[in-house]
Design brief:
Number of helices: 3
Number of strands: 13
CATH superfamily: Jelly Rolls
Radius of gyration: 17 Å
Low-confidence stretches: none
CATH class: Mainly Beta
Mean pLDDT: 95
Shape: globular
Order of helices and strands: EEHHHEEEEEEEEEEE
CATH architecture: Sandwich
Helix content: 10-25%
Length: 203
């Protein structure tokens, strides 16, 4: 699975990152538990976890390249909401969220940040990411402005700093499936933004 690597930061800027060659990622019997252990090791004793995003993108790509199991770990979109989430690993005290998310065609997410770092890989379909940045003024401290957009295809991986703001739209004719891993969310720093009222609320 070929693809591109991207990084999005709080200023709404996205940049292409160097990807590791697929043949350098091939492993025999590479298991999901090994991926989780390697992520945990990569973040041990690191004050600013975002400095590890290049390594985390590489680990996610290694998992995708070596794990057919991951390709079939997802739900059908919910008929009511158009979105389904499958938690892949959950353990008390484990500081990461690991899941697959399925979007029905045409579904759009709210404009939001994550309050933590994140790495998202497109497993199936296509999604359009629209990026925003805070642009406060004397009247609206939570005002945001659109900075650009990027269409992601199967095999692409995008990473976010905690203050990166985006919205997502599934644009393919089939459901879009993503693999998502996030750090420990700081709930007071995770927001949904309204570009009309220029207000934000916890998300």
């Amino acid at each position: 699975m070929k693809g591109r690597d991207w990084l999005v930061t709080g200023d709404g800027i996205y940049e292409a990152c160097k990807s590791v060659k697929v043949w350098d990622l091939l492993r025999e019997n590479y298991r999901f538990y090994r991926f989780l252990t390697e992520v945990e090791t990569a973040l041990n004793n690191v004050e600013d976890e975002t400095v590890r995003l290049p390594e985390l993108r590489m680990l996610v790509r290694r998992l995708i390249v070596n794990s057919y199991w991951l390709q079939i770990q997802h739900k059908e979109p919910c008929p009511q909401t158009g979105v389904s989430v499958l938690m892949l690993y959950e353990e008390l005290g484990f500081p990461f969220t690991v899941q697959t998310v399925t979007f029905a065609p045409g579904v759009t997410s709210p404009i939001h940040n994550h309050g933590t770092w994140g790495v998202v890989a497109i497993l199936k379909g296509q999604e359009k990411n629209t990026f925003w940045q805070r642009h406060p003024n004397a009247q609206f401290e939570d005002k945001i402005e659109r900075t650009g957009e990027l269409t992601l295809f199967s095999g692409d991986i995008i990473s976010f700093t905690p203050d990166a703001i985006h919205s997502v739209e599934a644009i393919s004719n089939e459901p879009t499936v993503t693999f998502n891993i996030y750090g420990e969310t700081r709930m007071r720093e995770r927001f949904e933004f309204d570009p009309i009222t220029h207000k934000a609320k916890n998300f």
